[in-house]
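Q: Could you fold this chain for me?
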Amino acid sequence: MRFCDEGVVLGGKAWGNSQYVVTILTRDHGCCRGLLGVGRSTRLKAALRGGTCVRVSWQGRLEEHLGRWDFEDIESLSSKVWEDGVLGVMVELMSGLVKKGLAERDIQRDFYDKTRRLVGLCGEERKIFLCGYSLWELELLSVVGMGLDRERCAVTGARDSLCYISPRTGCAVSREGAGSYAPRLLGHPDFWSDEGLYENIYGCEGGKERMGACEKVEMGSIVDGLRTTGYFLGRYGFLEGICGVLRLRVMEALEEVLV
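A: Sure. Below is the predicted structure, expressed as structure tokens.
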């Protein structure tokens, strides 16, 4: 069988002298693996880093076979992303989390579109990318069936002033509902509930609109949100191995900004 699709490369592992087993999140076929012969091509080797957007074809005898990739078009991330002490690590982390979270051939078109857009945000101001990444981790938890319940306060039923997340249930809690338990709860930053900001980041094409929406978001709120999603990612085993190492590097770098 054979298919053509668009996708985001999640990484490659050497297989022999000139081949790699490459995992790609495709729009219409989910996460797929296949062999790619790179030979001496530096362009193909560079494309194996996470975050590369590609047009590809996959061919194999049966769907469950490893098959082979043919890269038809390659859109690699700027070298500035990899030179950045935070962005490059976060792209690697994003790729690792997708590989851990999504089963092979599990088609998630909406999540693919958001992942593709997140990669595109690497070229924007860093705060735009960080806001987008925090919202993307919320989406990942939802896609893998571990989403947080942020519709209303689990204690009072109120839909406003949702300031916390219960680490036990994953449910939102308002300031009033938290009471004396507030120190035991995780943070729920305001920008998570800002639908206008969400649409500006993942819906519009204009950088100025995105920057305008993100300017009011404080770095402390972004870090607070990442601590919360990180707690649940860790609980469900997503931060084991290399993902845990990358996550620690990201959080240390961002928390230094707050000092």
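A (continued): The CA atoms of residues 144 and 157 lie 26 Å apart.
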